[in-house]
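Input:
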Amino acid sequence: MSARDLHSGSESEDENFNPEPMVDEDDIPNTGNSRRKPSADDENDEEDEDQGAAPRRQQIDDEEDEDEGPGGDEEDEEDEEDDEDEDDEDVVQRPHKRRKKTRRNQFLDVEAEVDDEDEEEELEGDEEPAEEVHPDDLLEPTGADLDDRRHRELDMKRQVEAQKDAEQIAKELDEKYRRREMQRAQKAAAGAVPLSLPTVNDPLIWAVKCRPGKEREVIMAITKRIDDALSAGRPVGIYSAFERGGTMTGYIYVESDAKQDMVSMIEAIPNVFMGQAQIAIEVKERPDLLRKRKRIQLEEGKFVRMLRPPLYRGDLAKVVEVHANGLDCTVQLVPRLDYGLNEDVNAGPDGNKRKRGGFGRKGERPPPKLFNEAEAKKRHMKHLNMTGSGGSRHITYKGEDYQNGFLLKEVKINHVTNTNVNPKMEEMQLFATVSVDGTETLDLVAVQAAQKAAQSGSAFASGDNIEIYDGEQKGVRGTTVSVTGDIVTLRVTEGDLRGRRIEAPVKTLRKLFRDGDHVKVIGGSKYIDEVGMVTKIKDDKVTLLCDSTQQEITVFSRDLKRAADSATVGNDSDFNLYDLVNVDAATVGCVIKVDREVLRVLDQNGDVRTLLHSQLAPNVNKHRSAVATDRDGSEIRVDDTVKEHGGEGRQGRVLYIYRGHLYVQNRELVENAGIFVVRSTNVTTMAAKSGRAQAAGPDLSKMNPGVQQAGANGNAMPPPRTMGRDKLIGKTVTIRKGPHKGLLGIVKDTNGDEARVELHTKNKQVNIKKELLTVKDPITGNSMDFGGKFPSRSRGGGYTGASPSYSGGKTPGWGNSSRGGPSWGTPAGGRTPGWGGGRTPGWSNDGSRTAYGGDGSRTAYGGDGSRTAYGGDGSRTAYGGATAYGGNDGSRTAYGGFNSGGRTPGGPSWGSAPSNSKSSNNLSAPTPSAYNNAPTPAAYSAPTPGAYGAYSAPTPGGPPMDAPTPGNFSAPTPGDTAQHPTPRGYGGYGGGYGATPAAAPTPGAWAETPWGGGPETPAPSGMDEDPRYD
Amino acid sequence: MSFIPTSQQRYMRACMVCSIVRTYNQFKTSGCPNCESFLELTSNDEAIQECTSQVFEGLLTVSDTKRSWVARHQRLEGYVPGVYAVQVEGILPDEVVVAAENAGVHYIPRDGSNSVSEALPTDA
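Output:
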């Protein structure tokens, strides 16, 4: 440019109009001066005013300089310098010459220049005579100031020059400029000259199809042909051929003058598809073929995607270092290692596997995982090499470096890409940096940078107010009309262009907002979906006040959209506020804040953690039925209201129960969204949602059979329902009836009153009514009683149907008992009392209404033996009718009923009643008292449910039955009660009386609690004596 | 002979100054035909590593660097015929740039970073 500026404006204009021919003139000096002359003349005409009869050489010189100008490149520093030097000299010399030869303004100057140049180029001294001749000739006669005279002089000069031997001039010029040209060529080659644009005079460029991926091979094949032709001295035919690999796959481009030359040169080259016509590239499109793509600079800390090696293709990597040569970089990768697990053990040590290895990887590549030293040591200790320690621990494994579990890999920059990286949160998480204190932090800024979406037209919607903030049309404002790719059409709304539709590339646009606009963040930042009011606008950054958080955030205006709606926060999260989530295997937490990228979670230890969404497992299974006990032993269920004991005394509603930790919500609390964590043992229940009795201990009415029965009031109770797994399952049974009668089997499953029995004899399962089964001891083969499952077989018939188990249990027991005889015979014996005493009363109490023969003595156990008949009278109170137990038979073991009235007196009354029988004495004492006491709440409160269990447990019948389950208690049915005492347990023992004593323990147990009692003695004794079958 | 057999193509490197493409061994044995005067690549591994690049794009074979517009556009005028790269990545060490300037070669990186003069609207 500057070179051009040195010359007249007209000239440069001329060039601007048609720069292309100037390129052509590059060649002219070589070809001769025949063309040059006319052009020189043309220019002279224009220059007449200024330069008049400048010597041709000077003009040529000028042209020479201008030749370099067409592309208008400013890089041409050297040439500029040259020119300037010359000009400087001119300036210096002008006054001098003027002094010497006045009135010769321009011509003299020009001549002086020529002189200078000649001096400069001493080698061309031969030109001097010629040079000096014409100026002198021309100039000497002058002296007049008149213009026309100068014109004439100029004409004369031209004539003279024209007459000069053209060949000589050509030679001169050639000599003079060859060197410069050579120099220039070198400079040009190195880029000193602006990129020349193609002209119609340049060779044609043809696009030729070839096999994609084979472009380089084709080029090399052409190279070989060129080489051959050159060495053979044949004409080559094509000037060049090139490919653009990744950008124009499947094409090569050949430059040649004629299509035939090109075709003959490339035909029959493998992978070239000559079948399709070759396309000539238009002149103006040619530069595009050679456009260089500026590589986006890799920067340390940025994320890239791997292209190679295949093992890591597509993996996210972080640039650790870019090497000085700009060709290599070190990246941090999450290694994919199998630590030799999939190694072919059969492969020889010489690696003959290589042969079979073939192309591509076999099978799946290992998943990305941080380097695991222990794993590596297992099989590849020999490949392992360690240096350093602690954080700087450096491991070399199989020739690759690992640090902090990451693979540090040196790769060529073209093996990674930084376009379309779009890292996912899960991937990013692996790159979370572990700080000194062990907490993981993720460089969210890096994340954001990596996720920064390339700006595209999609950010603009029609109707947006936009402004062009860059480029020639800077400052133009308008409204978006349409968006096509990256070009936005806008209608100008302000200024001179108002109403015009213009197009602008997206990257020069920004959205226009005004203070106070209500806007929504639609992308590009972590504030996506935030809505707020614009408070400040600076350039293309907009500060807005969020509606939701009342914080000021600054985002790019392109990420904003005018919005009327209000914020919706975190709608893309899988988690909701107050969700219970798994933090890790041993930790759960309650979500107390859902942010766009992070969750704040209150874990079970009361710590608040900030976690990424992806760090959390899906929600924990919520056990709505979970139960905890408070410090008083009351049960706590979800939705109960509890109060912290001690501490701040916070109270609230239980949201979750997790292993003794309660997540309690109190809306009045501010911190942690009103959630706090307490241990269940540290709270007291205030109110239960279900209306359960609270704070007073377990529900006695449910647990106290007597109370229950009062309610039941003699009605036949439904059979007890066994909860949970049927006890029968897994038992060895015999079938008593039906086609399979007598066969032995194992109960595999039960359903209602049916059991599925796998027969020992046949490999077959049959459905049998439970009542037809007899449980056998798998080892001894003895029958075992099994409560509740058997039909009422009461001998006495005293039992109501409600207590079938009772009799059922008993029967076998009785029958089987080895000691049956004696025991029967001696009801009054040591045992009996146990029985009658402890137990019976207890029993009768329970069952007074129903079970044990409401009808009186005859019933129950005694039925057969008649000795011990227990029958509660129809005493209405649960605790013993006044004379609940009377042995009808007059057997010694007749037990007087309790005093219903006196709970306390029960003891005495009892005592008195049975007093006749010694044994009964023992027994009786405890029992009644037990019962008496039992009803008192105090008694109940003390014992935990466990106590009840104990109660039932001791009863021999208990164990086999479901005695221990509290359900027994809760079930008010007499049958239930019947179960516990179930004497069949006894029966099982054999001792008929044993049976009775069996009952004894129960009262004993009862007694225990209220009395702490000695009285239970009978029971234990009874127990001890009884053989146990379990 | 500028032909490089397929088996050798993996060793191809491009001179960062003139963009000529040769194999490492060719550079080592005979240097760069255009820039040898100041790059002095022959038998100089380090110089080859510094001044030539394995990362280049676009293979261009030229038989006549004067007549070919492509060669002129690529600033290959005056260079020997042969195989060149359209774009060469890499950063020439400063001292080499100075040496080139001293040798009268105005060095313009061939990595596309200096694409101002050819910048067209769609140039990304």
